[in-house]
C-alpha cells in the first residue's frame, strides 16, 4: 500500500508518499480502507520528535491520527463491525498512520460513521471531537448554567468544543478574530473576545472551566479568570504526573513531567483552582455518543479545505502555517 512516511524526526520539509507493507490484522482488529484523514497539530509534534521520549514509534513512520473509511477485513474475534461498514476513528496512540491507503484499528477504537456526513467531513472529527468530549464531559463534567471559556474557538478543537458546550447547557465564551466572530457565535459562543484587540483576562471573570488549546501566556492568564474551585484543562500546556501515570511511564519520567508542570500547578493552587493536562485517547464508545449528537444536528464539522493524497505535504504545510480560516484541513485519499 501507499502511505505518507517520515524517515527521521525534526525534518519539517520531509515526508513522502512511499510503498509500505499492508497492515497486519489481529484477531480484534478491523482493516479499514481509508477514504479521508485530517491534519492535526499532533502530526507536527510527532514529526518534530516532541513526543519521542514518551511515544516510542519505529521509523520510518506513517503520520495521521484520524480517519474515515470502509471496513475491508475483520479479524476472527471482531463482533462490532463487518466488511462494508462505513466507520471513523482516532486510532490508539501506538497505532497511528491514517495518511495511508489502509490501516488496522482495534474494534474498540472504531465507531460507525455519522450517516449525515461525507467521508471528508467525518474524517475531520475524531481527534478533535474526542478531545472536546474528554475535556468537557469526562473531566470537567460541565453542568447546565456553568460558565465555560474555550480558547481559539475557530480552530479544530474549538469549533467542536463550542458546540458540545452549548449542548451541555453552558454559558460559553471564546477567543477568536473579529473575522470569525459570526462563525463562533453560530457554533455556540455567547461571548466572543477579539484576541487581536482585547485581553480576555480583563473582559472575563468567574468562569467554572477553561479549555486551553494554546498554552503559554494564555494558560497563565486563564488561571485568573476562573472562580475558586474552577478548572483549567489544557491540551497545550506542560504535561503532569497524572498524564505520565496514564502512559505507564517509569518513575523518572513521572518526576520529570511533574517538574515541568510544577510552576503552573503552583500558580493554580494560589488562585484556588486546578490545572490538568489532557492527551486525548482513542475511544469508540465515546465516538458513538458523539455520532448520535452529530446525526441529531447538535454538532457539525467545520472543514476549511480538502487536499488530495498526493498533496499531503502541502496540506500539512497549509495547516501548520495557520492558513486555514476556520476548522480542519482534510486529506482525501479516494
Task: Give the structure's gist in a few sentences.
The protein is of the alpha/beta class and 334 residues long. The protein has helices at 41-47, 119-123, 126-139, 156-167, 181-187, 200-203, 216-222, 241-247, 251-260, 262-271, 284-295, 312-320, and strands at 2-6, 16-19, 29-39, 61-62, 67-74, 86-89, 102-106, 110-112, 147-150, 171-176, 191-194, 207-212, 226-234, 274-277, 303-308, 328-332.
List keywords for this structure.
Quinone Oxidoreductase, Chain A, domain 1; 2 domains; zinc ion binding; alpha/beta; Rossmann fold
Describe the structure.
The protein is α/β, with parallel strands linked by helices and 334 residues long. The protein has 2 domains: 156 residues, Quinone Oxidoreductase, Chain A, domain 1 (Alpha-Beta Complex); 151 residues, NAD(P)-binding Rossmann-like Domain (Rossmann fold). Helices cover 31% and strands 26% of the residues. The strands form 3 sheets. Strands 3, 5, 6, 7, 8, 15 and 16 form a 7-stranded mixed beta sheet that branches. A 6-stranded parallel beta sheet has the order 11-10-9-12-13-14, with helices on both faces. The chain has a 3-stranded antiparallel beta sheet with strand order 2-1-4, with no helix packed on it. Helix 3 crosses helix 4 and helix 8 packs antiparallel against helix 9. The protein is globular.
